[in-house]
Amino acid sequence: MEKNIAVIWGDCASPEIVTQAIRVLDRIGEKFGHTFNYTDVAMGGEAIDKYGDPLPQHELDKCLASDSVLLGAIGGPKWEGMAGDKRPEKGLLRMRAGMGLYSNNRPTKIWPQLAPASPLKAEIVAQGIDFVIVRELTGGVYFGDRQVNILESGEKQAVDLMPYAEYEIERIGRIGFDTAMKRRKKLCCVDKANVLETSRLWREVMHRLQAEYPEVEYSEMFVDNCAMQIVKNPSQFDVIVTENMFGDILSDEASMITGSIGMIPSSSLGQGTCGVYEPIHGSAPDIAGKDVINPTACILSVAMMLRFSFGMSAEADAIEKAVSDVLDQGLRTADNMSEGCTQLGCIAMGDAIVKAL
Amino acid sequence: MEKNIAVIWGDCASPEIVTQAIRVLDRIGEKFGHTFNYTDVAMGGEAIDKYGDPLPQHELDKCLASDSVLLGAIGGPKWEGMAGDKRPEKGLLRMRAGMGLYSNNRPTKIWPQLAPASPLKAEIVAQGIDFVIVRELTGGVYFGDRQVNILESGEKQAVDLMPYAEYEIERIGRIGFDTAMKRRKKLCCVDKANVLETSRLWREVMHRLQAEYPEVEYSEMFVDNCAMQIVKNPSQFDVIVTENMFGDILSDEASMITGSIGMIPSSSLGQGTCGVYEPIHGSAPDIAGKDVINPTACILSVAMMLRFSFGMSAEADAIEKAVSDVLDQGLRTADNMSEGCTQLGCIAMGDAIVKAL
Ligand SMILES: CC(C)[C@H](C(=O)O)[C@@H](O)C(=O)O
Ligand SMILES: CC(C)[C@H](C(=O)O)[C@@H](O)C(=O)O
To answer: Which of A21, A192, A313, A340 fits a 20 to 30 Å CA distance from A218?
Structure first.
């Protein structure tokens, strides 16, 4: 097969990991007889520097024309404190909206080799941590209107609107159920239905979908309780589906309990098969240019791209197996180094994974 | 001194803990020469059963007329699935609004005797977990308008509004700074200023206040990052100030890392000295009537009431010391029982604490 991939190199230490991810893609191409073509796209800080805009339309157009997008991580101190539309994150939000990427999927899984790195006690980790958070990504308070009103007293009042329409809930709810069907068939919808009208609409729509998926064990949980349960008893979860803001908070909390956020990839998909794949970690300005950053999350993002956008399961399996083999060999980067292991830099870790392929 | 306390006995297992908390209050009265008068108030499930309303005005009026309110916990399976205004939680929300309780304070502290019960690794716990979350309690998406619109397509759209006015931020921000001044002088404002207009107004107001508190080391953190940091490195926090919904989520997560939510009290205060004091845990329907529930969080809520509403620090110290002594004696309830300790029921634990006074 031939696939066209838009590559967002990203800011700070990000190009270092993207470089390794592309080496892995090329190795997969070689091994399985595919051709991957790359088109550079500027987004975030890089695009602000070049175009004064974190995602100009011509760059978004390149993403839309691609078969999928590989993204490192954007932002950094250089662009902090910039006004509204000149913030790197604005590029990310505009890309999600512009590409209609309403479904964000973040696997929360402990690699057995890295289990000691979890901040949770060994007894809890031993019960197994392997769940997926399906986060709605183009709705809710992220994309509702915002206002600043002047009150009678003369002072300001800011208002953020959190809207959800039935179709927005239905399409992400369906992805929640479909994801559960491919896994342990358990789905938990997380909301705040004792307070929010949007959450009550979520439940209404989810109950409708539930009838279509009789095999799935469906449950509901308040977001505050979920924030507790992720720490207390994470083995109870298989798939969590939730709205944009709750997904943002819970998926970061969940990634932390794995103890190795340098290992967690993510996918963002919409109606078609063109998605954005990126590590969940940031651009790591403090270690930029030092060949220290862990390229694995970005490499595993490539595996997700192959699996979800290109239907290349064997290829994705090969990458995941290579990562596991390298961990078995005791090879680590600085972020998850432990006693008795060998510490590698970013390039050497890329080498090791390519070699294991 | 003579004080009038409104007592909300609460639902399910709640009256069992309130009974013990009142025994402790009476013992304090005896020992320090105070008189505490009690007025029963029905709220939540009890009020729905009696009046068909989770907080009728005449019951709220009793709270408003009191010097402070002692609350157990409300709700239970009996009232689940009831429609909007017949939900026990509505009583709680109406009480917060009706009494103007804009400031919720939840200490997140590990009792050294209970450190092994934390789900976090011993190394992390050993660094110290002792912070306070100051949660704004009468604004934001909890009290904004809600709508259900019918879209052109005929389907529903729900909208929740999240408003914050400058004065609402300023008064809670000030409590954040004042709380920090009485502690380790570190304040972290948690928000999502890269997305929300309300968060940007929070920062604007907080920066103004910062100038008045030059001694406080002030920082800002995004809520998703904070959800990670609470698990990864909780010792970094002294005081966190945040809006209503973020405070709900983060304070539940934080309480869980202490490993003993049966030990955590809370205060909710407004302009005056009349506040509501309650354990953070729920009404524990599964163990109702079994003399198993831990009364300590409710007893420590009494200590907070004495300290914050009545200015009785020595009395509050005495209760906290009694709780600590009882833990030192190896006395535990079922929820935090560990090897080598003696397990007590709710009443026996109340006895032990009263005796230690
Ligand atoms: C950068 C920020 C706007 C973004 C979000 O909140 O969605 C990030 O936290 C994420 O989770 O991808
Ligand atoms: C019961 C519910 C409405 C309430 C809240 O969300 O404020 C509870 O979770 C709390 O934290 O006191």
So the answer is: A313
Residue of B nearest to A84 (CA): B194
CATH code of B1-114+264-357, in short, is 3.40.718.10
The per-residue pLDDT for A80 is: 84
Interval B190-213 mean pLDDT: 97
What confidence category does residue B343 fall into, taking pLDDT thresholds of 50, 70 and 90?
very high
**CA of residue B160 to ligand 1 center, whole Å:** 21
8 Å CB contact of B197 and A227: no
pLDDT of B40 reads: 98
Is there a contact between A162 and B160 if contact means CB atoms under 8 Å apart? yes
Picking from B155, B231, B251, the nearest residue to A257 by CB comes out as: B231
* CATH, domain B119-257, list 3.90.1150.10, 3.50.50.60, 1.20.120.430, 3.40.718.10: 3.40.718.10
CA of B252 to the centre of ligand 2 (A): 10
Mean pLDDT of B9-15: 98
Q: Which residue has the tokens 């100009």?
A: A56
Q: Do domains A1-106+261-357 and A119-257 have the same CATH topology?
A: yes
Residue with CA nearest ligand 1 atom 3: A89
- Cβ(A160) – ligand 2 distance below 6 Å: no
For ligand 2, whether the C-beta of A286 sits within 6 Å is no
pTM over 0.85: yes
Residue nearest to atom 3 of ligand 2 (CA): B89
**Among candidate residues B298, B287, B294, the one with its CA nearest the CA of residue B114:** B294
Boundaries of every domain in chain B: 1-114+264-357, 119-257
Q: What is the pLDDT of residue B81?
A: 74
Mark the ranges of chain A whose per-residue pLDDT is less than 50. none
Q: Are strands B103-109 and B265-269 parallel, antiparallel or unpaired?
A: antiparallel
State the Rg of chain A over Cα. 20
State mean pLDDT over B279-292: 96
In total, chain B counts a number of residues equal to 357
Instruction: Find chain A residues with C-beta within 8 A of B280's C-beta.
Output: none
- Residue A86 is predicted with a pLDDT of 83
Parallel/antiparallel/unpaired status of strands A239-242 and A186-191: parallel
Helix (H, G, I), strand (E, B) or coil at B333: coil
pLDDT of residue B80 exceeding 90 = no
Choose among A124, A159, A223: nearest Cβ to B197. Answer: A159
Long-range contacts of B148-152 (CB under 8 A, 24+ apart): B148/A197, B148/A201, B151/A165
Name the residue among A182, A185, A201 with its Cα closest to residue A193.
A201
pLDDT of A298: 98
Query: Under CATH, to which class is A1-106+261-357 assigned?
Result: alpha beta
Average pLDDT of chain B is 96
Residue B31 has pLDDT above 90, yes or no: yes
Name every chain A residue with its beta carbon within 8 A of the beta carbon of B223: 248-249
How many other C-beta atoms can be found within 10 angstroms of the C-beta atom of residue A85?
Answer: 12
**Ligand 2 center to residue B242 CA distance, Å?**
15
